[in-house]
Structures are given as C-alpha cells and as structure tokens.
Specification:
Layout: E1 7-16, E2 22-30, E3 34-38, E4 48-53, E5 58-68, E6 71-76
Antiparallel strand pairs: 1-2, 1-4, 2-3, 3-6, 4-5, 5-6
C-alpha cells in the first residue's frame, strides 16, 4: 500500500540537469511525495535533477526511486520547491 494517493495526470514536463541539459518528458501521475514520468530509456539520467511541471509552472528537485524501459518513478526532495514566474498573459508578448 502506498503512503500517498496518486492522481492520474497527463502533463508536459521538462527535466533539467545540473549540467544545464534539458529533456522533455510526460508526467503521468502525481502524489504529494513524487511523480511517475514517461521518458524513453531514462537509465542514463542522473540520480537527482529538477522537474518542471509546465502545466502549473512549478519546478521541484526530484530523486529517481526506480526505472523501467519507458518510465521513471521519482520522489520530491525537500519542501514544495520554488514557484516559477507566471507569464503575464496567455499568448501575449511582452
């Protein structure tokens, strides 16, 4: 039995490594303690990285807990993480 309830989602995400590399992923579910990411062959990823949830414009540090050929289970590290700056308007240029 899991500690937290998972919420199924289908959101675009971005993985940001300490080396400055970024990779697209899909966030398949969320809980208060972590997330399930869909990414082809994630075995090469570092054990810890930043996950950006593009849908709600947040960024959190995560640690890989397990991997399979096209899925990665991650746990959130630390608190709620910093909020990213919200855009000023949908589709507007500044």
């Amino acid at each position: 039995m899991r500690k937290e309830t998972r919420q199924p989602v289908s959101r675009p995400g971005r993985i940001e490594t300490d080396e400055g590399k970024t990779f697209s992923c899909r966030i398949a579910d969320l809980s208060s303690g972590g997330a399930l990411l869909l990414i082809p062959n994630g075995d090469w990823l570092p054990k810890q990285f930043a996950l950006v949830d593009i849908f709600n414009n947040t960024k959190r540090d995560v640690r890989i807990m397990w991997t399979s050929p096209d899925r990665i289970g991650v746990a959130f590290v630390g608190g709620s993480g910093p909020k990213m700056k919200k855009p000023t308007g949908f589709g507007k240029r500044s």
